[in-house]
Amino acid sequence: MIKALIFDFDGLIMDTETPEVEAWQEVYAAYGQEFPLDIWVRAVVGATTAHFDPALHLARLTGQRLDAQALHERTRAVRLARQALLPPRPGVTALIQQAKALGLRRAIASSSPHAWVEGYLRQSGLLSEFEAVLCREDVPRVKPYPDLFLATLQALALKPEEALALEDSPNGVLAAKRAGLRVVAVPNPVTERGDFTAADLKLRSLADMSLVDLLRCLDGRAERAAPGACQAQ
Asked: β-strand 182-185 against 163-167: which pairing, if any?
């Protein structure tokens, strides 16, 4: 029986990922290059930037000696300005309220730092909605390793089968499955081309299905869900 929802943050609760990609796409375009979105999704989204540096990659593509620090500072300024205006993704607030009505606990498991995640949650008025917020500082390894989900389960004193993960990236889905959780994938514009075959259910948006129907679909009670709700999306 599901007793808790474990949310990712970046790209799931708020689409902080699209502004960052757009900022790098603009830099690459200025040098006549195409930003490698597929590499970015595989190596960075849901994880960290430790395995792929877009500034160094651009330097290799152009054969030029570029100021990597200046490029990072440029894209950071652009993305922060755009991210400051972001609302929660469609369906997020409603899903949280539905979870509260059903008595389900809520937590965050994010590969980003606490200051980043909690800052945006506080800004959007959502921080108090979560019982636990686990971030990169709390575990030795981030997604796609299962550490964040295992730590969140420990914080909630729950078994893997008692929690449902909500993720927007293939790395996040893989981390949740490695921890033994069922997982619903809700891709964003950056991750929508990723491989989500490991997810138990895939939605275009959290606004597409009520939480009650979502749980019925996952529990094999499709006949009690809204017509067509459990069809692959």
From this structure: parallel
Domain assignment present for residue 229? The answer is no
User: Do residues 142 and 182 both lie within one domain?
Assistant: yes
Q: How far is CA 94 from CA 4, 51, 97, 98, 156, in A?
A: 16, 35, 5, 6, 22
* Span 19-32, average pLDDT: 94
Residue 78, Cα to own-chain centre: how many angstroms? 21
Q: Are 46 and 195 in contact (CB under 8 A)?
A: no
Cα–Cα distance, 80 to 92 (Å, whole number): 21
- Evaluated on CA atoms 33, 34, 37, 38, the torsion sign reads negative
Residues 102 and 176 in one domain: yes
Q: Beta strands of 51-109 (E only): which ranges?
A: 105-109
Token duo for residue 68: 């990597």
Mean pLDDT of 114-123: 94
The residues that are catalytic are: 8, 10
Domain boundary among 83, 108, 129: 83
Q: Are 152 and 134 in contact (CB under 8 A)?
A: yes
User: For residue 83, what are the contacts with CB-CB under 8 A and spacing of at least 6?
Assistant: 14, 16, 19, 20, 120
pLDDT digit string (tens) for 40-50? 888 776 555 56
Tell me the residue range of the domain where 148 lies. Answer: 4-14+89-224
